[in-house]
Hints:
With about 260 residues, this protein is of the alpha/beta class. The chain is about 50% helix and about 10% strand. The chain has two domains: about 5-120, 3-Layer(aba) Sandwich (Rossmann fold), CATH 3.40.50.2300; about 140-245, Arc Repressor Mutant, subunit A (Orthogonal Bundle), CATH 1.10.10.10.
Amino acid sequence: MMGFLVIDDHPLFGEALGNAIRISHPDARIFEAASIRQALNILATERDIDLALLDLLLPDAVGFSGFLRLRDSHPKLPILILSSVVDKQTIREALALGAVGYLSKSTSVSELSDAIARILSGSVSAPKGYVAAGTTVQTEAALREKIKKLTPQQVRVLDLIRNGLQNREIAAELKLAESTVKAHVTEILRKLGLFSRNKAIIEIGRIAVASSLPKRKGRTGKALLTRVVGKPLPRAPALVGELRRRIPRRRPGPTDGLFAPL
């Protein structure tokens, strides 16, 4: 049974959020708070909250101060911001700070329900038409630098995403809780500046094309990601054989680092 925390000081909007959640999660446990203080009190006693839905305009919060208090005290809690303020700079800042999504309060119930489902699967959600800065012209070099910021475990998760595994399958492969995998996926997308796992697959595939690596039997993205990160990765049972393979170094070609934007 999923747990949700709605943090909003407008009862009618809080009720609408509850209805949106129940569309896809009829048996959801929904907690409501009208301030950051009330939210922290609930989180102190309820450990199974899967997603917090936060309004930035609260009696005891200014700007992102409420979000930062929640994030600092519960760093693993996914937080979706719902606000009447939808300028691109605010959205960009919220996602950079670690929000798993940012939606307008004018979003329809069905759209909100869809966004919640995407977030719970590990994607990031933003208003329609929003494009993160730099995502349209991300170079191979820039993507490689972002991948280097991933933890070894996040690189392993990213490789399994690239090979088409869903969160439940990744959890079984790496012997992790599915909620832990979801947290890893969210953090991976945030660090890479992407909004979906499909986009992550495309971007990692782009490195493979740009690198012009020779095709060999049994090669997977693991060796490629190891090369990008520049250090050995922790072992996973199904990938040990692949980790032992080495990609021969080659001289850079004249087209390295160039690609056509999507």
